[in-house]
Amino acid sequence: TNLGSVTVNGIVSTFQTLCSLANFESTPAEAPGRDLPAPDSQREVAAAKSLGFQTLAINVQIVLPETADFSVYEGIFRAMKKYLLEGSE
């Protein structure tokens, strides 16, 4: 890596802390309803929780480059739509 030693030490320290909190001895539980679509509303989330399902939230953060070329932004958002919304590879 080309990161500085302070950054690398921080990354390693974070990883070691997470490992100390993890339980590597347990086996993963069967995920009931693995093929179910993601809930669309808070009501559906509450219903899923009442059945014992877990929810997962993923936040995608994009740092946009500073440019006057609007086509750069169009390309970024087009790619986001393609890979995040449409699920294309």
Descriptive notes:
The chain is mainly alpha-helical. Helix content is 47%, strand content 0%. The chain has 3 helices and no strands. The protein has helices spanning 5-21, 42-50, 70-85. The longest helix is centred in the N-terminal third of the chain and has 17 residues, at 5-21. The protein is flat, with a radius of gyration of 20 Å. It starts with a helix and ends with a helix. The model has no long low-confidence stretch (mean pLDDT 77).
Gist of the model:
This protein is mostly helical and 89 residues long.
Q: What are the secondary-structure elements, in order, as H or E?
A: HHH
Distance from N terminus to C terminus (CA atoms, Å) equals: 28 Å
* Strand-residue proportion: under 5%
Q: What is the quaternary state of this protein?
A: single chain
What is the residue-averaged pLDDT? 77
What level of helicity do the residues show? 40-55%
Unreliable runs: none
Q: In DSSP terms, counting alpha (H) and pi (I) runs of 4 or more, how many helices? A: 3
Number of strands: 0
Major β-sheet profile: none
Descriptive terms for the model:
mainly alpha, flat, 89 residues, 47% helix
Topology:
Blueprint: H1 5-21, H2 42-50, H3 70-85
